[in-house]
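Milestone M4 deliverable, item 7.
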Amino acid sequence: MAELDRRYAASSALVREGVQIIAVHDSLASRFDAATRSLFRLVQRDGPGVWDDLAGPAKLLRWHLITDPLPIERNDILRSGVERVKRQAARLAGAVGEPEVLTEIRDAASALLTRDPLIGRVVVESANEVGVGTAVIVAASSRAREALGGWLATDGLRVLTLGDLERVEVSEEIAYFVGPPRFFKPIAVTAPRTPEVTFVVPGWFGDLSLPRSPISDYAEGGIRVGVRVVEAGESAQEVPEETQDGLNGIPEEELLPQPFWGIRVSEDRAPTLDEVEAHKVLLSGGRAIWLETDGERIRSLDPTQPAGERVTYVDVSLLSAGTYLLLREGAGESESLHERAFDRLGTRAASIRDSQATWKAALSDRLKTNGIRDSEVALRTLDVRAAGQVSAWISPHVIRPQRDRDFELVLTWLGLQVQPYFENASTLRYEVHRATRELRNRLEAVADNADLHELERMGHMTLDITEPGFRGIFVTKVLGISPFTELVARHEARVPFSDRGAQWLE
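Output delivered:
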């Protein structure tokens, strides 16, 4: 109750006083921003392709200028980002007809290493001005938290992510968010943990709007938080003229690190029986999976939950960036669980395999003959409630229709006796559920002993499970979900594979 009262008091104070945004003018960072905008005017003109290998690292370096304002001697990520940009610019030189753009972005990147970022100086000075025990620093990511924390710890400042801020006890009175408001979830201002909230942003960043809850437009008398902007750093005269007009024609969204999706290659048609319509899901650690649009839940891990409650499932339709998935190297989870179940069935395994193969083959033949849509209509006429899932039932990973009556009606529609198919499928389902519970318990035990702090820092980790059937399981963070779908082979869904689409993401 005390914490709830404190949060209400903080919200009231923020509504009354508003959010402060400190716009830090830094001529070196402004010059690189201007060079990046010039590059993206060429991208807009020419389209993706020749500029991609430079555009990705340029956007990522620009991001790190915002979120990682550490002194140069401690800023490994800034130094490596500068080198990547210079290397890619050099490779493009002579291959394109705009060498002045390449020269400027290379020189602007090099100049970043001649002086410490001014944003960092402003953060430290602002926190010291209000008092170290009064201020908490909020980083834009777990990785940035580690970097900033290692630097600011010597000043006695606590560095958290927004997620950390929600979970821990907060005694500070003001939170300094390192980055513009759009880098953080709406809860940063709609349900603040501190009475005062300040965002420290580059003077050249164009979008200073506050994050809003998706339901705010529908809430009667919704809370509106005001904004006051103060300036710091170098004077406006020291900032390159071309960066003083805000967006300068390039939307901020296009200048932020983004995944590379390419273009859709599938034909515009319905999937065949051996295909599924799936989104590509980019994962930490250079991996990806195809996730079917009509799939069931997928196993996940929530590091924020207490021991014994971390392993759970998330509905495919609710999956979002930031979710941690539990996957198996080179195979989907269903394969390993089914094999474990068949191992337990002993002498009955062969007959149950044959039984499953028989009724699924009959269903596949009927779908090929009648078509999926007509088959759905026929099954609905018979009162099969899950008729819309009929094409999924031919998959070896889907044991049987969930509802008993649905399965009986399907078998009859196929001209098969209900037994032994019903009993065999139900027995297999029981053993798979049993194996699933055991795997969950095993994963919970391993997760309790794992370094989840390392997971949040790296975004992925392998779980130390040596037991047969459970080997090769790893946790990985969802980095992005493709805006379009592809038609992929059914057996490829949920099987991890290498992919570099997220290489220029934070």
